[in-house]
Every structure is written in structure tokens, then in C-alpha cells.
Amino acid sequence: MLKKPPSFFGKGGGGIFQIGSSNESSKLMNFADQLLQYLVNGITNGGIYALIALGFTIIYKSTDIINFAQGEFVMLGAVFMSTFYQHAHMNLAVSFGLAVLTVAIIGILMEVLMIRPLQESSVVTQIMATIGASIFFRGTVMVIWGRHDQFVPFFSPGEPYRFFSAILDRQYVWILALALLAMGGLHLFYEKTLYGKAMTACAANKKASSLVGINVQTMVVLSFGFSAALGAIAGGALAPFGMKYDTGVTYGLKGFCAAIVGGLGNNVGAIVGGFVLGVVEELGAGLISSSYKNAISFCILLAVLLMRPQGILFIRSGERV
Amino acid sequence: MSLLEVKNLGKDFGGVHAIQNLSFTVKPMSIKGFIGPNGAGKTTVYNVISGIIPSSSGEITFGGKRITGQSPYRIAEMGLVRTFQNIQLFHTMTVLEHVMMGRHVRSHSGFLASALRFPGMRAEEKKIREQAMETLAFVGLKDKAHTAAVNLPFGHQRLLEIARALATDPRLMLLDEPAAGLNTKETGQLAELIFQIRKRGIAMMVVEHDMELVMEISDEILVLEYGQKIAEDVPRNIQANPKVIAAYLGEMEDLEAC
Amino acid sequence: MIGRILEKIERIHFLLFALLILALPLVLGRFDAGDYYISVLVLAGINSIVVVGLNLLMGYAGQISLGHAAFFGVGAYSSAIVTTNFGLSPLLGFALSIGLNAVIAYFLAEPILKLKGHYLAMATLGMGMIFSALFSNLPITGGSEGISVAKLHLLGYVMNSRDLKEINYYYFTWIVTLVLVYLALNLVDSRVGRALRAIHSSEVAAHSIGVNIAHYKTQVFVLSAIYAGIGGSIFAHYSTFLCPPDFGLNYSIRLVTMGVIGGMSSIWGGLLGASILSMLPQFLDIFAECDILIYGLVLILAIIFMPQGISKAIGGCWKKIRQGPVIR
To answer: How far is CA C28 from the centre of its chain?
Structure first.
């Protein structure tokens, strides 16, 4: 049986380090160490947020819909990977790959069965439909897998690495590597393949794209597939920490903050937004209070929406230079 | 004494000068034609005057009061309303409700009065309804009062926009291509309606591509090209103005080149 | 003239509905599980208040909110703190609930309602999450431990004592609901209601014929927050124990779901949606473990097949029946 590892999210660095030591000099030392630890944790979380934010962005660009079921793709990724590993006794890599593929297919089905009929609907309807899908996914997983966490073993078990004074869990390295790999792959796909270019064209102008012979519908289907796959990659990477039917919600919301922070509808923005949110959130939680960790993310979200709705990266679209 | 006075108006979008140094006036109860090739900036001028977008420079006064930088609703309160080139109807409302919306600026009942149905609110509501019906009768849409506005034929939708604007008791109406999409008969009726509106003491500015109509109704015509005024004169002189002819000939050539 | 008649009919609907509500306990009292149904109906009444307010904001003025649980929570905690922590009259709790929500909504409305569509949805969602973090961390709300609330004493009566089988609280809740519904019905059928619908359809047209958009958006936001707060206060005395998860994202989403399923652009739709979805989980108990799944499925199917909500779907059918078969 697998032992439940310490929770990855929620506690973060706060659980490992005790703030406020008796000794003055060690307090100073500790503070620098803590900062480094927060940074390491933040960047790792940021990788996950960036993947989810990318998922939001890809779907938003192709359909103008915010997919509130994005977090459920993460959860589904972890749950499927665990099932393939635990019950079908496949090795970790194969389970991971199959889970990503399965979730991608679920994403595509979601587009075909639900999003397509609602293309002309109001924003409220579309939002509620994707919320409906997220509730449905949660419900299905609860019925089939129950209410407890699903696990896989750590990808490479062993003592954590030390990065200067910070502790770097081996799984964190996997998370970051997988996130960067997925981003790189996506970048290559967009830049080097015909399909990638067609998707970019569709995002820029659907009408013009269909006039030059691009099948816009196919591109929308692809975008749902990719978006779900990205979520599942994040989910697979997080699977050793355990996931259950309702774990996806928080991830979805965080990814969604990241997408806004970076500027909705922009891939680079989503990635930058993810890392920025991860780090700021971890620092805020560590330095202020970890119980306000979620609130910090949403304060950042509100601040960005109210002051720079175009995101932190780019100049306002009206101001051409 | 002029009703609307636009002085050295300018509007930039990024580096693009959409309007440059534009000055003109509209006298009370007059009709000013406003023409120019496509993309000359006519609608932008309307958007700036009605307060929907801010100006970059210059000053606009209406009825002796400065309205530059005012909110659109304040400008409407002062008696300056506009219609839209791409008709802007309220998709959930009937024809009558549209015109009742026009009475909004001339009525006062707020949330509390409406929720509690104060007697004053009931009386006001009745008056709004009557005045709206009157306005509908004036433009000839009375028998369509309870039709959903989106079900009206196109020509009637244009009339409805005018009725809605008219119901605000304006002193100046900015009409944006009121004849676009109308047939010859409807255009004739529109000209008649415009004269009727003027008889009520309302001045108008009319952006229109139907030259025959503009020449017929306008007291004066303002011609815009690339955001700049190239002529402002009575219709007869405009027709003979070489600059105006050149501007429109240019457009003809562009069209032929296509 | 026709308008007058329509107005009369609207009020007749309302009267019939009010009679039905007042008579319902007499019928339900004859069943064994009558008390249970009554307490479910109390919840339906509470949700109706919140959803009717939300419909004014979303269905009429067209401004999305995915964070109304925040105002519901502020209302509930106001009542709880005033009565439990300070031992003051519950009426003061209601007053604080209304006042506090009005002030909070007033100051949030200006910046938030400048946003549109998805951006507005996210900003309100963020607002809700921040409040929910406050509810579970502030000392005065009892944090994640929760806080208990006294039963409601009004005019010398305990409105919700066990031995009275919740019936008093049923009447209390539904009379407040009926009053608020009546006010909402009046409001939408007025100059203000038209202005809100105009903003929904075309902000630029509404603005340029003289509707002060920012002013109306702020006011309707405040009003919907007040409705949510009143609902929250009634809920506080009903549940007699508050814990933060009751006022989180899930509740915000349930509120919007109620509106969507019943019909957003109709006060009756709000009532219908709130009532159906308040009762549904009770019946879904039969399906025990599948409740979330069925809930999600109902939501998806409702949105795809009845995008205007049940009230409009019924209205459409009724129209067809009255007009008879379409002759081509």
C-alpha cells in the first residue's frame, strides 16, 4: 500500500519551516533560507499554474470561452494515471502517457457534445455550461473512484535534493521538467507544424482562416484536446501527492488567476503569469499567513483585473506604438 | 447665436489623426448635412460630440455650455441625442418600450419609488406611456406599438431609432445614415419626417450618403475628408465645389480600381 | 390599455402564488414527513430571495456575478455576530446585514462593474473567494470552527422552535420572500426596469439616450447584495450554526445555476429555479452517491435544451397552446 505523502499544496513551505527562531543571527539566516525555499516552492507551483493557464488560454483563443472545467482535467489526469498504474499494472511512463491521451479524448468529447451547440450562446450560458461539465466530471469520479485520494508512487523515490539551503523534492524536479517539456512541445507545435500555424491563424481571425481553407471546427477540437492534455500532464506530475474528485477546483482557479495575470489569450503571458503567481503566492503565504494563501491569489487577480485587465505583460491594445 | 459650436476638434487613435482641427456650428432649428467619403471620420465626430469617446483636443459647446469630456447621458439630458449607423435596438423590448426609454431623461422615478409604486411614480409612468404613444404616432409607428422591435422591418427600425431619440425632447439630433437601407419611397417619407421634426423646433445634423436626400433637406452642408473640413456651404455651392468633387471622384476611382 | 390589463394579470399571478404559499403548510401538515418538507421549503424561500436579487443584476441588467455567496455570508455573519457575540436584537442583525452589504456593494460596484463578460465573471469570482477566505480566518466569524446563532425572537415569538415544527419560520421566511418578490416585480415593470434592460441590450445606446449607466449598475448591484444579505440573515437564524463552506464558491455557483435553470430574465424564473434546486438535492438523496453527477448532468442538459430557463420554456409552450397549431 502507498503511504500518503505530505500535502503539496496548501501547506507549502510553511509546514516545513518554523518562522521566528529564538536566536537573532539564525533568524537572519533563516529568513534568507526561507525566502529561497519559498522561491523554489513558488516556481514549482508556478510550473503547474502555467500549464493550467495555458490550457485556459488555448481554449479561450479558439472559442472565446473560459473553460471552468480546466481544473478537472488536472484531476482526471491524476486519477486516470493512478488507475492505469494501480489496477492495470502498467509502468509509470505508460500510465502517464495513457492518462494524458484519455483526458485529451475527454476534452474533445466535451467540445463536440457540449461546447459546439452553445457557440452562439451568451457568456453566462457558456460559463454555466463549463461549470456544469466540471460538476459532472467531479460527480463521475466520485461515483467511480470514491471520495479518497488516488496515488501513484513518486517518479524517482529518494532523498530530496538540496539547492543551496533549500530543499528540493525530487518530484518537484519532475514537475518542473514536465511543465517545461510540455511548453516547449507546444511551442514547437505552434511554430513548426502546419496545424499549429492554422490554429494560430484561427485564433487571430476565424472568418479569414476559414476563407483560406482552414477547417475552423477541427482547430477548435484540437484546442480542446491540447488544453485537456496540458491539464492532464499537470495532473500526472502531481499524482504522487494524491488527488480526489474535488481537488481539481483549486488548481483550476489558480490557473485561471495566472491566465488573467499574464493577459488572457496570450500563451507567453499564461506561462509568465503562472510563475509570477506561484512565486508571489508562496512568498505571501510564507511572509503573511498561509491561511490567506488563496485570498492572496485572488487579490492579485482582482488587482490585475481592475488596474491592468490586459495583463501585466503587454501594453493596452488601443495604444499602438 | 449657434446651438452647437465645435472648435478646433481633434481626435487621435494612437498615431492616426481621425479628426483634425475641425470647427463648425449648427444653428437652432437648422439642418446640417454632413458628408464625406467612407472613412472620413464622420461617425467619429458623432462619437466625440455625443461623449462616447473623449476628444484629444478642442472644445465643444452646446447651448452655450461646454460639453467636452461630459458623460453621454449628461449630454443627452442637455438635449443632444444621436442615432446609430448600425441600428442599436434593445433586443428584449417592444416598440413602445423603446420610445418610453426615450422619455427616461425627462422622468425621475428611482428604485424606491418604482419598487413601492408611489402615486407620483404611477402618474409619471402613465405620462411616459402617453407621450411615447404620441411620438410613435408622429413617426407613423403607432400600430406597431406592441410588436417586438427586433421583428420590425429594417426601415421601421430606423424610424424607431429616430422616435426613441425624439422622445428625449432634444434640441439637436445627430442622425447617422438614417436612409441607409431604405427604398426610394421610404427615403421620401424620411425627408418629410425630417422636415416635420424641424417644425417642432429641433435642429439636426445628418450624415448621409444619399446625395439627393442631403441636397434636398440641408440648409448647409459640411464636407469632411481624412478628418479635415474641406468645405462648408449651402448645398448649391457644395455641388460646384472643386475640392468636394475631387474628394468624391477620388473615391470613385478607388472603387473602380477595386 | 393592453399594458394596464397585463399589469392587472401580473398582480393576479402574484396573489394566487401568495395564497398557494400561505396554504401549502395546511396541505403538507397532513403528511408524516410534513415537517421535513416545510423545512425544505424554508430553504427554498431563502434561496428564492437571493436568486431574485441576483436575477435583477444578471437577467435584467446583464451583469454576471459568480460571487454572491459573499453577500449572503456577510448577511448571515452580521446576524450571527449581532445576536450571539453582542446579544443584541435580531432586528439589529437584519439592519446591519442590509447596511453592511449596501456599503460593501456600493464601494465594490464602481470598479468591478466597469468590467464586462468573462472579466466581470472572474472579478466577482475573485471577490467571492476573498470573502470566503475572510469568513474562515477572521476571529469574529469564528473562523473555520464556525459560529452558532440564536433562534429568531420576534414580537415575543420564537420563530423557529422545534415544538412549533418550523411552521412559524416558514411563514416568516415566505412573507419576507413575497414582499421582496413583489417589490422586484414592481421594479422590473417601471422606468428603472426598462433602464436596466436597456443596459443589458446595448450599453452605448442606453448611455447616449440619457441612462446613467454607472449609477444604475451600482444601484442594482447594491440592491442584489441587499437581497442576498437578507437571505443570509434569515438563513443564519434558520440553520443556527454557520460555517465558512456554506458561503463559498459552491454556493455562488448554485445561485447562478438556480437562476439559469429557472430563467434569468424573469422574477418568476428566479423563484422557480431556486425552489426546484432547493428541493432537488432532497430527492437526489435517493441516489446517494450520484448526487453531484446528476446535478452536473441536469445543469448541462438544462443549458443545452432550455437556455432561457424553465419559466421561458413553459411560457413558450403556453403561448403555442393558446395560439393553436401553426398553419403553414
So the answer is: 24
Asked if C278 contacts C284 with a C-beta cutoff of 8 angstroms, the reply is no
Distance from CA of B11 to the nearest CA of A (A): 14
Chain C residue numbers with beta carbons less than 8 Å from the beta carbon of A301 are 122-123, 126
Neighbours of chain C (3+ CB pairs under 8 A): A, B
Cell 450554526 belongs to which residue?
C241
> What are the strands of the beta sheet with B57-62, ordered from one edge?
B16-26, B4-13, B57-62, B65-66
Contact A230, A48 (CB under 8 A): no
- Three-state DSSP at B170 gives coil
Gap between the Cα atoms of C250 and A246, Å rounded: 11
Helix H, strand E, coil C: the string for A28-43 is HHHHHHHHHHHHHHHH
Q: Which residues contact C157 (CB under 8 A, 6 or more apart)?
A: C168
Please provide the distance, in angstroms rounded to a whole number, between the alpha carbons at the two ends of chain A.
61
Indicate the pTM of the whole model. 0.89
Confidence of residue B77 (pLDDT cuts 50, 70, 90): very high
Question: What are the tens digits of pLDDT across the range B15-44?
Answer: 888 999 999 999 999 999 999 888 888 999
Nearest CA in chain A to C112: A306
Contact flag C207-B110 (C-beta cutoff 8 Å): no
CA–CA gap between residue A171 and residue A169 (Å, rounded): 5
Identify the helix (H) or strand (E) that includes residue C79: helix C69-80
| Interface A-B: count of C-beta contacts within 8 A | 7
Q: Are strands C157-158 and B228-233 parallel, antiparallel or unpaired?
A: unpaired
Joined together, the cell numbers standing for residue C192 give 428603472
Give Cα separations from C299 to A64, C49, C268, C309 (angstroms).
Answer: 21, 21, 19, 11
Whether pLDDT at C136 is above 60: yes
A121 and C307 within 8 Å at the Cβ level: the answer is: yes
Residue C148's SS3 state is: strand
Q: Which residues pair with A166 in a beta bridge?
A: A163
Please check whether residue B73 touches A, CB under 8 A.
Answer: no
Tens-place pLDDT, residues A144-160: 998 899 989 998 888 88
